[in-house]
Amino acid sequence: MSRLAALALTLALLLLPATHARSQDTLRLSLRDCIQLALKKNPSYLSATKQIDVAVAREHEALGGFLPQLNLQGSYTWLEKVMTVEMPPLFRFPGMPAKPQRIKLDFTLDYQGQVTLTQPLFTSGRLWHAYKQARLAAKLAREKVRQTRQETILQVSKSYYGCLLADEFVRVSRQAVDVASRHLKSVKDRRAVGMA
């Protein structure tokens, strides 16, 4: 009894979506439409295409290592007080009073600036190898996109033709049911007449 109930439940679950889908409008898509839709919505393909942008940016960054770097720094200081420094007398002459000298230092406005230009002359191939690695990473990212695109197209094609095959199987099964129904009716009619 449990096998019969399981079979009935399985058939009900399989046929329920089909009857529900029939009540809605049918969307017809060609293989090309399915592929375009999959390439627009596939997260792994979209992620791979974004990785190209990242790899190209890193390639440009590595190329920038060959270029000179210019650093500019500046500062501005403003003090409200003038600083006064007292210096003891350097020479003492007899009979003359020794007064310390006061010197005023005006640092109320202080500007400082610095410009640094750096150009690497020899890096023992470090910059070249970094650029070469970044260039290969960009090439790898492009190949990864190509691979992901081909895999997506393959999966969509398999699914599309699988759906067409299932649709054809349903059509053939319905024809078989129709033939069997007609045969059953024919047998019942013959039996009723007494020919079977």
Structural commentary:
The protein is α+β, with helices and mostly antiparallel strands. Among the domains are: 33-68 and 134-189; 70-91 and 98-118. The chain is built from four helices and four strands. Strands 1-4 form a two-stranded antiparallel ribbon. The longest helix has 68 residues, at 126-193. The chain is rod-shaped and about 165 Å long. The mean pLDDT is 84.
Blueprint of the fold:
Blueprint: H1 2-23, H2 31-41, H3 43-64, E1 69-78, E2 83-87, E3 101-105, E4 109-118, H4 126-193
Antiparallel strand pairs: 1-4, 2-3
Helix pairs in contact: 2-4, 3-4
Q: Assign an overall shape.
A: rod-shaped
Strand content: 15-25%
Number of helices: 4
Could you tell me how far the N terminus lies from the C terminus, measured between alpha carbons in angstroms? Answer: 34 Å
Given the helix and strand composition, which structural class is it? alpha+beta
- SSE ordering: HHHEEEEH
Strands in their spatial order, largest beta sheet: 1-4
Largest sheet: 2 strands, antiparallel
Unreliable parts: none
Q: What portion of residues is helical?
A: 55-70%
Number of strands: 4
Mean pLDDT: 84
Q: What is the CA-atom radius of gyration, in angstroms?
A: 44 Å
Task: Write a compact overview of the structure shown.
With 196 residues, this protein is an alpha+beta fold. It is built from 4 helices and 4 strands; from the N terminus they run αααββββα.
What attributes characterize this protein structure?
two-stranded antiparallel sheet; 4 helices; two-stranded antiparallel ribbon; alpha+beta; 196 residues
